[in-house]
Amino acid sequence: xxxxRRVSPRFGTNFPVTLCVDGxxxxxxxxxxxxxxxxxxxxxYLPSFTPVKITFDLxxxxxxxxxxxxxxxVRNGMYAGAKEKTYLASIHFDNIGADER
Length: 101
Description:
Helices cover 0% and strands 54% of the residues. It has strands at residues 11-12, 16-21, 24-33, 37-42, 51-58, 63-76, 87-95. A hairpin with a 3-residue loop joins strand 3 and strand 4.
């Protein structure tokens, strides 16, 4: 078994998020989340090193959290039977408040 070498644990998630790049917004769905970043699935290809604003509507606390980050990795997210191609975008948070973390 391999052990993850992460400072912050990541948790599997499944709720809508909004990505904003250069004033354009794109819907996405969260896949996992930690204090330092997360992964989301979107139908829009956003290349690595793209700065992004991310907005979460957290279902547990019923609050909205916004932060800024950079896309560090993009992978093919298309699953069997999908109607359209999707991408998994891994985002490192550059600027998110301590309370939001």
